[in-house]
Predict the 3D structure of the following.
Amino acid sequence: MTNARRSRRSLTAASLCGAFCATGVVLMVRGGSADAGKGIPLAPQGVPAVPGPGVQTAPMAAVPGGVPMSGMVMPGAGGQPVRDRRPLFEVADGAALPGYEVKPLADGLATGQGFEPRALNNRGEIVGAIVEPGRDGERLRRHAVIYRNGRFDRIEPIGDFGRLSLTDINDRGQATGTLVRYRRGAPPLVHVARVAGGEVTDLGTLGEPTFTDSTGRQRAAPVQEFGPRIDGSGRVVVRVGDSLLRWTPGKKVERLGRGFALDVSPSGHVAGATGADDGSATVWLNDGTPVAASRGVARELHELTSDAGSVPDRSVVETVNDRQQAVVAVEVGTGGFSGRRMTLYYLWDGARRSRLAVMRGPQSGARINGSGDVAGFSSYVGEGRSIPYLYRKGKLYDLRAAVLRSSEWQIDAVTALNDRGQMIAFGRKEIGTFRPLLLTPVEKPLSATASPRPGAPSPRRASSAVAAPAPG
């Protein structure tokens, strides 16, 4: 293998890992594994739902199609568990979805460079990093960028910081992330950063100089490097030490509690979990009020797995919109290799929850838009491949099929979704490496009789700008 090919492969792996890690999903099966997701959507009818106090479970209507599940059990006669052989993997006809225009985001970059997208706003602007090989065996180098109108605006770190990482962007074009300073013989120093009008502001550690670790010792408060999120008014939410903090321009920093955030809606609702990494799913409303989102779920999980002892009571809210609709993820099992792990997803509105899917393998983090569509979860099929899905109005759709009807791209993961239905995806053609893509829905759904591609599955200031032309 040539050095050039090695560089391309390492950049591809780095981009996938960076995108998945940048979602902030640090709980349970989250991470940058090449196994990004595969599982079993839509639990069969008859699985008993055990709601918690004051919580009702909305029924999920069955849809045609499906493949037999495996590894799941149902209570049988006498309360003894028996393996259920009914179809569980049920996916609606993708003809109801629009086709998608596919734009490779890395087109126009120099040879050896790659793009690592991390967040998408409703104007189609993307924050991320241009990645290029280090010199003489050094680590990969990342340069913070904002993608606007087909161009990459590069944002440089300030002061003596060696790196700026951007993790989120709102509809005003304001972004947030972290500044990192490397120190010989010591952990890197990480500060919270905010970018507005091309200017970088160092927010430090939001007033948290130290924290008490598990041994009772005082340590410098670490900032969650890929954790900052920003809402529509420019408020920044991030975990510093073991505290979840919210910075508001011109106001005192708020302490929301002990926990971490994975997403913030435009109006300021915060999705995440209380506690440490093994937390309990929580939504903080825009006024800072925490609301538990996982009551009763642990009991239901015992009805879904043959190894009840392996069911941890761990959950997280991965994403939330302004209507307070939230996607709750709960780990179903941790045994075996990563491809056998399963994650149960619920759509929750504060009073009712509806089961979305049970997915196999590591997940990249779901995203919900203002209409209640959910994308991002995917189900592992082996050999490092997965199938990403879109949940819309009670049905689950295979996104591969919708994309393949209008292009030759095979997508394996979706990491962002906006109110226009645009998505950041990773995919490849029949022969080639994974590429970051921007999917934009067409105006009308394609005809169900349209001929699919053969083999398709069925129904500081910006210091520089790099043009990224549309694919030819």
Observations:
- The longest strand covers residues 186-196.
- The chain has a mean pLDDT of 74.
- Helices lie at 3-22, 297-301, 399-404.
- Residues 3-22 form the longest helix (20 residues).
